[in-house]
Amino acid sequence: MSRSVPQTKLEEREEEGLRVVGTRKMRYDAALKVSGSATFGTDVRLPNLLYGKILRSTYAHARILKLDVSRAESLPGVRAVVTARDLPPIVYGFAVRDQTVLPTERVIYCGQPVCALAAETAEIAERALKEVQVEYEQLPNVLTVEEAMKDESTPIHPGVVPAGSPPYASKNVCSFSRVHRGNPEKALGAADHVVEESYETQQVHQSYLEPRAATADVEARTGRVRVWTSTQSPFLTRNSLAEVLSVPVSQIQIFVTHTGGGFGAKISSHLEPLCAALSRKARRPVKMVLTREEEFVGGTPRPAMRFWIKSGLKDGRVTARRGRAVVDAGAYGSEAAVYANIAALQLIGPYDVPNFETEGLSVYTNKQPAGAFRAPGTVETAFAVESHTDTLAKKIGVDPVEFRLANAWQDGSLGPTGQVMKGVGLKDAITRVTRSAGWREFKAKRRGRRGREDRYARGMGVACGLIPSVGIHSSAAYVKLNEDGRVVLVTGAEDTGSGAVTGLVMIAAEELGVAPEEVILRSGDTDFVPWDGGAQGSRTTYGAGNAVLRAARDAKEQIVKVASHVLKVETKRIILRDGAARELGTDRLVKYPDLAMTAQYVIGGPILGRGTFVQDFPEYDKDTLEGYAFVPSLHDPTYVAHVAEVEVDMLTGKVRVLRYVAAQDLGYCINPLGAEGQIQGGAVQGIGYALFEEMLHDDSGLTVNPNLGEYKLPTIMDVPVVEPIIVEGHYGSGPYGAKGVGEANIVPPAPAVANAIFDATGARVRRLPMKPERTLEALDELLKPTN
Amino acid sequence: MERVRINVNEIDHEVEVEPWMTLNFVLREKLALTGTKKGCDTGGCGACTVLLDGRAVYSCMTYAMKAEGRRVTTIEGLTGDGNLDRIQTAYAEHYALQCGYCTPGFIMSTKALFDANPDPLEEEIKEALVGNLCRCTGYAKILEATLSMKQKRKGRT
Q1: List of chain B residues whose C-beta atoms are within 8 Å of the C-beta of residue A497
Q2: pLDDT, tens digit (0-9, with 9 covering 90-100), for A553-607
Q3: Which of A40, A192, A199, B4 has the CB geometry, 3.0–4.6 Å to B68, for a possible disulfide?
Q4: Interatomic CA distance for residues A513 and A592, integer angstroms
Q5: Alpha carbon distances (Å) from A17 to A510, A516, A730, B117, B153
Q6: CA end-to-end span of chain B
Q7: Phi, psi of A489 (to 5 degrees)
């Protein structure tokens, strides 16, 4: 059965009078979490539990000559050791097939799992790791993309087929994506000004507070695999686990615990395959929790990227662009290919650029494999594009805000692959954020007063961004009415902290005329909940939200029918409000408990609504795309504009963010309190990326700062209170006109801060993070005589 | 192994500990009080914060033996009567949490501060919470929640 529910129009909503959505609601899980009773992946306890640990490679690139686990196996208390031989020989990867759970011949990054074992206690397991004998023959390692692309460099994955048929001969290029429109060469030739720049971003870790954790219990008789895990996507975890274990998906049941943050890293399986393999072999449940150090050395961070960007200007407009992004993929190519694909799309930013050619490639190195991290491919690209946009404005002496407004997308603009953009709230966001930050007043007050003699310089910078409300992967929901009048919402969606699931509860409550407290949420068990693509790509409010809306409206229809039968009035004269179906304009009503009982015992069958959501990519021009295209066009983007005010210490190069204002076009906001939290949290993650965070490697490929002391995250002292602005009215096709929320807010901080530093000092920092020595270098650059 | 007596949330416990065992390990693994989290094991994140004789400490950096004969308060100790206390209520109402993993640690640091100083300045709040990392909220709503608990007294803002 397929049902199509048209999007609710604003007018219709106002007529109906929305009571729940649009109000400031606490999280549905707030009480559980503040009382310490929410069970996270790290908190899972089962009887008879063993503890698993991973032996990791100490070389960035080496041949395994010998792997002898016999001494470890015979240690008292050790119950299972798993090597590549205990797993089916599956090579996987959604874009590039280059990955195995455990290596057979070579290790290709420092920190790569070599084998795993389970013991009665974590301490015995740790001790047993030391008893595993591995002999390596060290191979030449490749740690930078420059090295990796040289003709003489060592191929990291010989024989693997790259994604998108790269036209480059280099042995380590693992993906290629290109987007082009118009005639950039001709337009560059005709330009009044041509500006060319390079930018560089760093490798950073998602640094969720809860380390990855999984507990697996494989039933010996049936081989049935049960896994308790803190995952963003139970179904993708189940499916990837089924693939590497070579078992049918129905043999696997995933139970989702509360998830202590994921930010992209907890989408697919990671610990689960090793955990299940250990449990299968030991015939007992096995729990694995990564240490913080393992999170860094063996994680899947945001990859470092390099950018080259060249633009032509004519009459104050960007008329031409060429650009290239190179992703330092690390050991595996699939996630990096997505970064490169998105970078190619985002290299024109949210601006009308009629002629351009942009490409993204990813290149293997012997480092941690790239993994998803909030707004992958966009955060990095925005640093290059939005810094460059300020350089362009400066070139022609136009205020950066005016320049952006002159070039920004609006309804009817063409997206990178030629789709027609609609519901574009970018200009509104720019106008609101700059007004609120006092942009004009700040610039007026400071005009002509850039004191080189002052120790502290202040500046204000703006930056924009966009993220599609990704519609890929389907969502579904069930809604049922209990005999006490309460509503059960069953969803496959997960909430890693974003608050999106609280929004789902609000939507069900709204549609069925009950208080959100009357909605019981059930999720997190793949045997019982309907399929959902998981918490990724700003999709929960948008995709799962539409599914819940449809399920609730399906239930509503059924409720109205029963009420019509009971009240003996036409269905169109019935409304749902305050836990009852009511006849319009009269006092006659049937309360939900009576209605549910009537449905069940008189008419037969429960009130059970179901709804699904799936959406194809918006129509685009296929001739504009070449190579790998995980994302070919943009579903209903949410637009952001941020303003940062900074103070630069001219003596030490230290940058302090004094004020930060962040506007986001959300179409329609389901829960302003939750959306503000996302905007503030995303902005602060972005400030960490801008100023502090960086994973560092030594020449051997070892991560040298694998702890939260040396990998610097922003603390409460490092950041101002981010001032959020929610922009509504430019509707998307999410519930009530909503768009995605969770990712776009991390996009502008790095360029906004860089542009503020530029405004304060005239110095352009081109490399992240903008730590004091880099700011000083940029300041020194200013003082160099130009020739 | 050695037997130590620790009072946790006003209940006396006798536990067998080895010298390397941290207070965090004893609370989570021996007493099954998993409300206290472990985020890093090196004193870098604050998710494991508990009160030791009323003062906020990192339980992952405190040896269990050091808690011998002392009073430990964990997040579970705040809901002794089944109701949320005022700090927990303030965090919930102000949306001062998202994933919630850092939340017990933040609440315990907040409690240590307010028990000692019911009317802290904003700077004092920040100093008390600087040892707790939150990756989700950007701290704005945490600061809002804690500021809302200040006793309204004249002359101080």
Answers
A1: 98-100, 136
A2: 999 999 999 999 999 999 999 999 999 999 999 999 999 999 999 999 998 889 9
A3: B4
A4: 10
A5: 10, 16, 20, 46, 41
A6: 51
A7: -110, 120
pLDDT of residue A644 exceeding 80, the answer is yes
| Residue A616 CB contacts under 8 Å (≥ 6 apart), including other chains | A471
Interface touch B42/A292, C-beta < 8 Å: yes
- Taking CA atoms, A654 is separated from A78, A290, A551, A762, A781, in Å, by 51, 34, 53, 15, 16
Q: Residue A334: CB partners within 8 Å, gap ≥ 6?
A: A93, A94, A95, A96, A98, A99, A163
Do A466 and A500 meet the contact criterion of CB atoms below 8 Å apart? no
What residues contact residue B41 under an 8 Å CB cut-off, 6+ apart? A291, A292, B24, B60
- In chain A, what are the helix, strand and coil shares in percent, each to the nearest 5? 30, 25, 45
Residue B139's closest chain A neighbor by CA? A716
Edge-to-edge strand list for the sheet holding A225-229: A78-82, A113-119, A50-56, A286-289, A213-218, A225-229, A252-256
Q: How many CB atoms lie within 10 A of CB A704?
A: 12
Q: Give residue A523's region: left, alpha or beta (phi > 0; psi -120 to 50).
A: beta
Query: What order of strands is seen across the sheet that includes strand B11-17?
Result: B11-17, B2-8, B71-73, B49-52, B55-58
Q: Is the ipTM above a cut-off of 0.95?
A: yes
Domains of chain A (ranges; CATH) run 10-38+473-613 (3.30.365.10), 41-139+212-289 (3.90.1170.50), 305-470+621-783 (3.30.365.10)
Task: List the structure tokens of B78.
Answer: 């705040």
pLDDT digits (tens, 9 = 90+) for A162-192: 999 999 877 899 999 999 999 999 999 999 9
Q: Which of A27, A29, A34 to mutate to test the interface with B (most CBs of B within 10 A)?
A: A34
Is A681 in contact with B34 (Cβ distance < 8 A)?
no
Amino acid at B19: P
Tell me if residue A11 is catalytic: no
Distance separating alpha carbons of residues A230 and A290, to the nearest angstrom = 12
Token pair 């729990």 in the structure block, residue: A287
Nearest to A503 by CA among A544, A551, A555, A550: A544
Domain B2-78 classification at class level:
alpha beta
> How many other CB atoms sit within 10 Å of the CB of residue A159?
6
Please state the three-class secondary structure of A13-53 as a single string: HHHHCCCCCCCCCCCCCHHHHHCCCCCEHHHCCCCCCEEEE
- Rounded-to-10 torsion of CA A325, A326, A331, A332: 40
Closest by CA position to B45, among listed B135, B139, B145, B124: B135
Question: Phi then psi for A687, rounded to 5 degrees?
Answer: -70, -35
Q: Quick one: pLDDT band at residue B154, thresholds 50, 70, 90?
A: very low
pLDDT number for residue A15: 47
Q: What angle do CA B154, B155, B157 make, to 5 degrees?
A: 95
Comma-separated ranges of CATH 3.10.20.30 domains in chain B: 2-78
Q: Residue A455: how many CA atoms within 13 Å on its side-chain side? A: 3
Amino acid identity for residue A728 in this structure: E
> Which residues does chain A have within 8 Å of residue B28's beta carbon, measured at their own beta carbons?
43
Q: What is the pLDDT of residues B108-123, one digit of tens each?
A: 999 999 999 999 999 9
| Count of residues making up chain A | 787
Q: Of the listed A676, A743, A773, A781, which one is catalytic?
A: A743
Q: What CATH number labels B79-147?
A: 1.10.150.120
Q: Identify the three-state secondary structure at position A640.
A: strand
Distance CA A493, CA A490 (A): 9
Q: What is the location of CATH 1.10.150.120 in chain B?
A: 79-147
| A79 three-state secondary structure | strand
Q: Note whether A342 and A377 are within 8 A (CB).
A: yes
Which residue in A has a C-alpha nearest to residue B129's C-alpha? A716
